[in-house]
Write a structure and sequence with these properties.
Elements (H helix, E strand, L loop, with lengths): L3 E2 L3 E4 L4 H4 L9 H7 L8 H4 L14 H16 L3 E3 L5 E8 L2 E11 H5 L3 E2 L6 H14 L1 E2 L3 E5 L3 H11 L5 E4 L5 E7 L2 H11 L5 E5 L1 H15 L10 E8 L5 E2 L1 E5 L7 H8 L3 E6 L10 E6 L2 E7 L14 H10 L14 E5 L4 H9 L5 E5 L4 H9 L10 E2 L9 E3 L2
Parallel strand pairs: 6-11, 8-12
Antiparallel strand pairs: 1-5, 2-3, 2-21, 4-5, 4-10, 5-12, 7-21, 8-11, 9-10, 13-20, 14-18, 14-19, 15-17, 16-17, 16-19
Helix pairs in contact: 4-6, 6-9
Length: about 400
């Protein structure tokens, strides 16, 4: 089975790329997207969050939203803002955020491999979010948000990528968030064949981010297969894959609305049965597994889970986020389903510990927890075991931009 294939990417003409490229649809809300795109008629937010072009208050899942997105997408093509490559290509995509650099390859990933768990998952999806992506793909007849894949590093792939990067990129721009995006097109048939050969030696790929997008692509493919003529034109999903030694996972933190009816003293007393508790004069950013920061009533604490609670051989149970769930959030705060319970919220580490303090100090939340980042080796172990991680276990930075390249369903 061929895991990855080149494809005829639909992408901006070079002189318009800065006007088109936008943050991923799922990291900005409607109000933020409307502001970001207010003076940018070609911003890809008009495609990925088209409710910004409809009256305020429009349900983002309304059929009119998908129709408007399709109209905006078609307009960008008709006006020559987006142009499709003539031949199937691979694309090299480098992101630089501060000192961190990671370089991936944009490709068409096999839905058959996804369905057979050769492209491995580690998260459940939420039906409403999955349905949203299905409706978006069907309206546009294209996939516009890449799935972030990772793989175990290979020297042969690295060498091919570096060879291409010695040439001038077709795009080189820095986003408003300060992330530099550079992009190369691999359109030479010989070099495409070299990538194909290198990819043929990969055993598995892993979804790092984009479970809803990949699940939606699989569903759309199944819908088309069931049509008369067994149309399998959508047998791939848009992906960018990065070697595991370049992927950076940062912390994904928790804030809780209340202490489940406990006083501060009762809460700390119960906490002490599973954790060593130490007050801290400064905000606590954990520096090892089994350690947590907690912000409560204007005070930071350093929590260290008791050693006897960390010796599980289960790939999920020994995750820091699961140990926090199993020993604190569920038994003490009575939140047994973090996917659905509205008393818990999640804060990406990119926002910093000050965001946790802000949420608690405002009175919106009662307590916050900072976590040590989940390791990529832990993610792969969970996926290899066919298990599922707790929700919001990983936060990846930098984020892949929307609009750099799209996959059209022929």
């Amino acid at each position: 089975m061929k895991l990855l294939s080149p494809f005829r990417g639909l992408r901006p003409v070079a002189e318009k790329v800065g006007d088109v490229v936008a943050p991923p649809y799922d990291v900005v809300n409607t109000a933020e997207a409307r502001e970001l795109a207010s003076d940018k008629p070609w911003s890809f937010l008009h495609v990925s969050k088209p409710e910004i072009d409809l009256p305020q208050g429009t349900d983002p899942y309304d059929e009119s939203v998908y129709q408007r997105g399709a109209e905006n997408f078609a307009n960008m093509i008709n006006e020559g803002i987006l142009v499709r490559d003539n031949e199937p290509c691979y694309y090299i995509y480098e992101l630089t955020m501060g000192e961190h650099v990671q370089t991936g390859i944009a490709a068409a990933a096999s839905i058959e491999a996804y369905d057979k768990n050769i492209i491995r998952k580690h998260e459940f999806t939420r039906p409403v979010k999955e349905d949203d992506r299905v409706n978006q793909i069907r309206a546009l007849h294209a996939q516009t948000g890449p799935v972030f894949l990772t793989y175990r590093q290979r020297d042969d792939v690295d060498q091919l990528v570096e060879q291409k990067k010695s040439e001038a990129p077709v795009y080189d721009l820095t986003s408003d968030e300060g992330v530099r995006h550079r992009f190369w097109v691999v359109d030479d048939a010989q070099r495409v064949a070299q990538f194909d050969e290198a990819f043929s030696h990969m055993d598995y790929l892993y979804i790092a981010d984009g479970h809803h997008r990949s699940a939606a692509a699989s569903r759309v493919c199944a819908m088309n297969e069931n049509k008369a003529g067994n149309d399998r034109s959508c047998k791939h999903f848009l992906a960018v894959l990065f070697p595991d030694d370049q992927v950076d996972i940062i912390d994904y933190n928790r804030v809780i609305t209340d202490l489940n009816g406990l006083s501060k003293e009762e809460f700390l007393s119960r906490l002490g049965k599973s954790f060593d508790i130490e007050q801290s004069a400064a905000a606590v950013k954990p520096d090892r597994k089994g350690q947590y920061g907690m912000y409560l009533d204007g005070q930071w604490y350093r929590l260290s889970i008791h050693d006897d609670l960390t010796n599980s051989s289960n790939s999920v149970e020994k995750l820091d986020v699961q140990m926090l769930d199993s020993n604190l959030i569920a038994p003490i705060l009575n939140i047994s389903d973090p996917r659905r319970d509205t008393r818990i919220d999640f804060v990406g580490g990119i926002r910093g510990l000050a965001e946790l303090e802000k949420r608690v100090n405002s009175g919106e939340m009662a307590v916050a927890f900072s976590l040590y980042p989940t390791g990529l080796d832990e993610l792969m172990a969970v996926a290899d075991a066919g298990k599922v991680m707790p929700p919001k276990s990983t936060w990846f930075e930098p984020k892949l931009a929307d609009g750099l390249v799209s996959y059209v369903l022929d």
